[in-house]
Write a structure and sequence with these properties.
The complex is a heterodimer of chains A (about 220) and B (about 120). By secondary structure, chain A is mostly helical. Chain A has 11 helices and 4 strands, in the order ααααααββαααββαα. Chain A has a two-stranded parallel sheet. Chain A has a two-stranded parallel ribbon with strand order 2-3. Classes of the chains: A mainly alpha (about 220), B mainly alpha (about 120). At the A-B interface, α1, α2 and α3 of A face α1, β1, β2, α2 and α4 of B.
């Protein structure tokens, strides 16, 4: 588990301890200062415990996928953008203002009725977090990392995605220098939807390649 | 859903100000870091100050050299973050140094244990 996961668990426990009168442990100076800040700011109604919680959770879990989803949605509605994304993923993504990718090359992989792309980091857990946020837990599991290379169709089946035998499956191995973004096929029945609405159909899994984009019904649109 | 709406509010930070990451992921090494992060962004989104006012103080704090509060060998990004935040709150008149110092001592001595 990564440190941020532990962080969220502890911060929750921290809060519970405070309200349940467990044994007192002397805080460090910085801990005391941050507790002082939080208690004073909440007391003065400048913020709330929930507002802080929400922002932390957004930062830890949801910050990225929205960015990747916007890239995909734009490529669905704008053929010229799609061409630029295909030619140079990093630059096309930077056009939308998503930085922090200077040292990484992002290659967009376009799914089609004949070809399905999926990527993995077999070595560690390299992941384009600015685009996709925090990686899902399974992404780092040895089972996924090992199996997706040798039996991608089986792995996809595990995700509930069954591909016709004639569809070619391409597995890409990411690294610190080379990142991937799967552009799923645009779902049927989405003509006339705005880019913002379309972006809601694009899930993190769809951009890794373990699922398709959502139908408007599934996305609640 | 509020989480969806909240996404664009987390300000981008580049270069020396970039949020700490491990394996490319944003990380907090301790609960206090996530609380400090949430407070700064929360007050900003509530309109207490433009992001730039926090940013310039964070730049100053980082430029001031390694934080003396951080144990040796520990990343001090969020120590600077807290320093910048305290300075901003005092300068904005949201808190006074005295009340912050008093409350901090209450937590340090255990006289106060509950945040709320």
């Amino acid at each position: 588990m990564s440190a941020h996961d532990e962080g969220s668990i502890f911060s929750m426990r921290d809060h519970e301890d405070a309200s349940h009168h467990h044994t007192w442990v002397k805080p460090s100076t910085i801990e005391a200062r941050v507790r002082a800040l939080e208690s004073l700011l909440v007391e003065k109604s400048v913020t709330t415990h929930d507002a802080i919680d929400t922002l932390v959770s957004v930062f830890e879990n949801d910050l990225g996928p929205m960015h990747g989803a916007k890239v995909v949605a734009k490529s669905w509605v704008d053929p010229a953008y799609r061409a630029r994304l295909a030619a140079d993923g990093t630059s096309a993504i930077a056009e939308l203002g998503y930085r922090g990718l200077q040292t990484e090359h992002v290659k967009a992989l376009f799914n089609s009725p004949t070809d399905h792309h999926i990527w993995v980091c077999t070595l560690c857990s390299c992941y384009p977090w600015t685009l996709l946020g925090i990686p899902p837990v399974w992404f780092k599991s040895p089972a996924y990392r090992a199996k997706v290379v040798s039996q991608p169709r089986e792995v996809l089946k595990g995700f509930g995605l069954v591909l016709a035998p004639e569809v070619r499956v391409h597995v890409w191995d990411t690294s610190a220098e080379q990142r991937y973004l799967v552009v799923p096929e645009r779902p049927a029945g989405t003509e006339g939807m705005s880019e913002d609405q379309l972006a809601k159909l694009v899930t993190r899994d769809a951009m890794i390649g373990t699922s398709k984009a959502l139908s408007p019904e599934k996305a609640g649109l | 859903m509020s989480a969806v709406d909240a996404r664009p509010v987390i300000p981008e930070m580049d270069g020396a100000l970039a949020y700490p990451r491990r394996n490319g992921e944003p990380v907090f090494d301790a609960p206090w870091q996530s609380r400090a992060f949430g407070m700064v962004v929360s007050l900003h989104t509530a309109g207490a100050y433009p992001w730039n006012e926090f940013k310039t103080r964070l730049i100053d704090a980082i430029a001031g050299g390694p934080s003396s509060d951080a144990p040796a060998g520990t990343p001090d990004y969020y120590y600077h973050w807290v320093t910048a935040f305290c300075r901003l709150l005092v300068e904005k008149g949201i808190l006074t140094e005295a009340e912050l110092g008093d409350r901090e001592r209450e937590f340090l001595t255990g006289r106060r244990q509950e945040i709320y």
